[in-house]
Amino acid sequence: MKNKKHTFEPPDLMAIFQTMLKSYGPQGWWPGETAFEVMVGAILTQNTAWPNVEKAINNLKQAGIFSLPALLDVPHEALAQLIRPSGYFNIKAGRLQQFCRFLQEQGGEEALRKVETARLRQLLLGVKGVGPETADDMLLYAFQRPVFVVDAYTRRIFSCLGMVSGDEPYEVLRMGFESALATDVVLFNEYHALIVRHAKDFCNKKPRCVDCPLAKHCTIP
Ligand code: SF4
Question: How many angstroms is it from 172 CA to the middle of ligand 1?
């Protein structure tokens, strides 16, 4: 399937969405109480599973430093130890503080809420350690902007469904989904959350194709 051009058909994408929604129900994403928590989580979740992020965030909360000023003040080494459960803790401590400096320089979260989506995306991508997936997690789940998050699960599932080759550049896939679907924050929020749920329950590295709710759409079984 290498070099296959993506073949997003809106009815298919919505049928896949409806099938997952019926199977799993609404996912209630993002698992974070505030926009700040979503942004911190988006950085900490890079290359790790969510339960590890929760442990790291709980450590920050218990240490009383889960705020922009406190995260800016805490010494790098202490921060790295607190977020250790999230893995790559030295790198992530640097990324987190870099992001907090950016947030402060921009006038905080409220100031960023006034920035138009394409410009905000550009600003987020300008922060060291924030790639397209992290930026889009923030745009969708912290700023409620209609951007479609593409992650490894999205690539795997839609490759199994025969709609992508899976190795397309990030932007090709993001724009493919966005142009095939209605521009709808609620839809994009739920769709990505359902993709993650489906990948965890069925379409993981060893797919459980028996009983998979998407089997009728799939090219694999
Ligand atoms: S049928 Fe198997 S490969 Fe296809 S989506 Fe389901 S789990 Fe993945």
Answer: 23
Number of domains, the chain: 2
Same-domain pairing of 126 and 111: yes
Mean pLDDT across the chain: 95
Domain end, chosen from 89, 118, 142, is at: 142
pLDDT tens for each residue of 40-81: 999 999 999 999 999 999 999 999 999 999 999 999 999 999
CA pair distance 9, 29, nearest whole angstrom: 25
CB 219 within 8 A of CB 162: yes
pLDDT level of residue 157 (50, 70, 90 thresholds): very high
Q: What is the pLDDT of residue 10?
A: 80
- The verdict on the CB of residue 203 being under 6 Å from ligand 1 is yes
The range of the structural domain enclosing residue 161 comes to: 10-28+148-217
Cis-peptide, bond into residue 29, ω within 30° of zero: no
The response to whether residue 162 sits with its C-beta less than 6 Å from ligand 1 reads no
Residue 5 lies in a domain: no
Residue 3 lies in a domain: no
* H helical segments located in the chain: 10-24, 35-44, 50-62, 68-73, 76-82, 89-105, 108-113, 117-125, 132-137, 152-160, 170-180, 185-201
* The predicted structure's pLDDT at residue 5: 64
Q: What spacing in Å lies between the alpha carbon of 212 and ligand 1's midpoint?
A: 6
Say yes or no: 24 and 59 in one domain.
no
